[in-house]
Design a protein that fits this description.
4-stranded antiparallel beta sheet; Tscrpt_reg_HTH_AraC_N; Homeodomain-like_sf; single chain; AraC family transcriptional regulator; HTH_AraC; alpha+beta; Jelly Rolls; transcription regulation
């Protein structure tokens, strides 16, 4: 059994039901879907996503990447993405493990090259060819779920190995920027955290810049270079994605969803929602609900539970 097949068997064993579940190993989550899913938004935190079976597409605006068992996904900053499983079936479910990146551990492994100029054109969302050594290390991390008494001692060691292999891979430069406390990437990361914590409130760029330790003009320039959007556009994506989730998953009305995420004007909310999702709120949700109902009906007809849906009580936009 090669590494990716072993990983698939491990995820199957420890994630027998569809959905995303945390584990006893810190920062490790397992994801399973038995059917393809519709595109649903979610904020992906800085993480490694390694698929053992199936495939998935994630999009940041017009930029999209597809990853599968031959390519893993690395997200370097918290990003509001839209993701959907492309390949999955009851007989061959989508199986993925997600490891959030521990920046403190990453910093311990990193010796920052202070003589090298910083680059803002490094990808914050990218896929890379699968590495057998990385897959092997991830397998050993997941395997610890069957050895709970060993997790406290061995999981940190295996996690450090995974971080080391990422640092020595093609994206090492980006990870070193993440770990360097005074890097532009690290400061933008602090700005992102400030925006996420108060995304329902009016955006005050001076406050966000102060949290990042940058001037307003520097923040604007570097934030856009790293995330492909301005701070205001980033906040808008967070607001609209949360509003869409509220309407789809919780049945919230468009008016209440817009108000809940910080819009005072219903017309502005509808206008910006249509610009982002291609249809007014009610029409977009009806369209998505029809697609989800069709998926559910198909699953029931096949004698399987509907998996990975974003209907009330479920969510298909989970990272991974």
């Amino acid at each position: 059994m090669d590494g990716i097949d072993e990983l698939a068997a491990l995820i199957t064993r420890h994630a027998p039901e569809a959905g995303m579940s945390g584990t006893a190993v810190p920062r490790l989550s397992l994801i399973r879907a038995n059917r393809p899913t519709v595109p649903v938004p979610a904020v992906y935190e800085a993480s490694l996503c390694l698929i053992a079976q199936g495939s998935k597409r994630v999009s940041l605006g017009e930029h999209s990447v597809v990853y599968d068992a031959s390519r893993y996904l690395l997200v370097s900053v918290d990003l509001p993405l839209v993701g959907h499983v492309l390949e999955a079936s009851p007989g061959a479910p989508y199986l993925c493990c997600k490891m959030d990146l521990d920046l403190a551990a990453l910093a311990e492994l990193t010796v920052a090259d202070r003589g090298a100029p910083e680059a803002d054109d490094l990808p914050t969302l990218a896929v890379y060819p699968s590495d057998p050594d990385l897959v092997d290390a991830v397998c050993r991390l997941v395997k610890l779920l069957g050895q709970p008494d060993s997790i406290a001692v061995l999981a940190p060691l295996v996690e450090r190995e995974i971080l080391y292999r990422l640092l020595t891979g093609p994206h090492g430069a980006m990870l070193r920027r993440m770990a360097a406390g005074d890097s532009r990437l690290n400061r933008v990361t602090r700005a992102i955290a400030a925006i996420r914590n108060g995304f329902r409130e009016q955006l005050r760029i001076d406050t966000i810049a102060a949290a990042a330790g940058m001037s307003a003009s520097s923040l604007h320039a570097h934030f856009k270079a790293i995330t492909r959007m301005t701070p205001l556009e980033y906040q808008k994506q967070l607001r609209l994605q949360e509003a869409r989730r509220l309407m789809l998953a919780e049945g919230t009305s468009a008016g209440l969803a817009g108000f809940t995420v910080g819009y005072d004007s219903q017309s502005q909310f509808s206008r910006e929602y249509r610009r982002m999702f291609g249809a007014p709120p009610r029409q977009d949700i009806e369209r998505m609900q029809m697609a989800l109902d069709h998926m559910t009906a198909t699953a029931h007809a096949a004698g399987e539970p509907a998996a990975g849906s974003a209907t009330r009580g479920g969510h298909s936009g989970l990272p991974g």
